[in-house]
Each structure stands twice: as C-alpha cells, then as structure tokens.
Specification:
four-stranded mixed β-sheet, Hypothetical protein af1432, 4 strands, alpha+beta, 204 residues
C-alpha cells in the first residue's frame, strides 16, 4: 500500500461525502500534531499515523445520512466499512472505521461486538488513535478553527496542552475535558489545558 495513494483515496472519499470540509481538515491537522507530540506515550509508527489521518478525514461523513444506527459516528463507521477501498486492506479499514466510530460518545468496550472482535494489539491501536481524534475534534468544537496550534508537555502523570489562540476557547476546552476521558484512561495521565501561561479551568 502506498501511503500517498491511500491518503489521496481517503481524501477523495471525504470530499465526496463531507459537508464541512474546513472543520474536518482542521481536525486532521490537530490530530496529527497530537500524534507527533505524544509519540513517547503511544509508541505507534507512520502506518498508524496514516490510519489516524484517514479516520480524522472521515469521522463526520455520517452526518449526511439520517441515522438508524444511533448517531453519525456509527454511520461514518458503516460508510467506511462499505466503501470499495483499493489502497487500504481489510484490517486497516476496520481500524479506521472504529477510530471514526469512537470519536464521540462512549469509549471502546470489549462488550461492543466490532471492538471485541479485534485482536488485542488492534484494540490498543484503536484506543490510542481514538483518544487523539476525540481531543482533536473537541479542539474545534465551534467549527471556527480558533486553536491554530497545540504544544504538548509531558510532566509526570500529566499531559499539558498549551493552546495557541487569540480567541475565547472555553467551549473547546470544556469539550476537550469531556472527550479527553479516553486519553486519560489510555495514557493513565491527567489532562491540563493552558493558555498564555494560565491553566484554563472549568467554571464554578
């Protein structure tokens, strides 16, 4: 599989099915920033980075479908599985589908049929990639691309996100606190959000 061909195939599928490509492209950028800066925690390689990129491109395509399966995240996963892929193998398609499926709502559980059917190594990949995609999507909760760049620090027992922005981003931080549940579970660290040297805390 050529990474460039696979990337182009995922991008083409996104363009054909996505109503808000600007948001999606921004989520891709942020997700890859997180992947690169969290490398020492997740231990994944370039192939998994490509799978995260594909899942980020396609996580919202299910919005176009009137869902009968419980939300656009599940429709996105279904559409990914049903596409006639040329440059992703079946195992990779399933990982991309599940990462997209878990970008919101509940976290992966062994009791979920598709997740439970994965090998243990693939389950770990889905958990790690979905953890990063959940955060990337939260960091553009307003769909306004207010957070341009994120710098990550990794002190003991924490992941500290330094947000580069000139706009109020309380909505994004609140979303990241909620959707950061998987990252906290997977990486066994507390999440902390910083702007201009000050911690952004939940309002009283």
């Amino acid at each position: 599989m050529s990474d460039s061909d696979a990337r182009e195939e995922a991008l083409t599928f996104m363009v054909a099915n996505e109503a808000k490509p600007v948001h999606v492209r921004h989520v891709v950028v942020v997700a890859l920033q997180l992947f690169d800066q969290l490398a020492s925690l997740h231990g994944l390689g370039n192939h998994e980075r490509l799978l995260l990129e594909a899942a980020a491109l396609l996580h919202d395509i299910g919005h176009q479908v009137k869902s009968s399966v419980g939300g656009h995240h599940k429709e996105s996963a279904r559409m990914i599985r049903e596409n006639a892929w040329k440059h992703f193998n079946r195992s990779d398609v399933e990982i991309v589908a599940q990462v997209a499926r878990y970008h919101r709502k509940e976290m992966p559980e062994i009791s979920h049929e598709e997740f439970g059917a994965l090998s243990r190594p693939d389950q770990e990949v889905v958990q790690k990639l979905a953890a990063m995609l959940r955060l990337a999507d939260a960091f553009d909760r307003s769909h306004a691309q207010h957070i341009g760049r994120i710098r990550v620090e990794l002190p003991a027992n924490q992941i500290v996100f330094h947000l580069e922005t000139e706009w109020p981003v309380l909505r994004e931080v609140m979303a990241a606190r909620l959707k950061g549940d998987l990252a906290e579970a997977v990486f066994q660290r507390d999440l902390k959000f910083m702007f201009d040297g000050e911690e952004m805390k939940a309002p009283d």
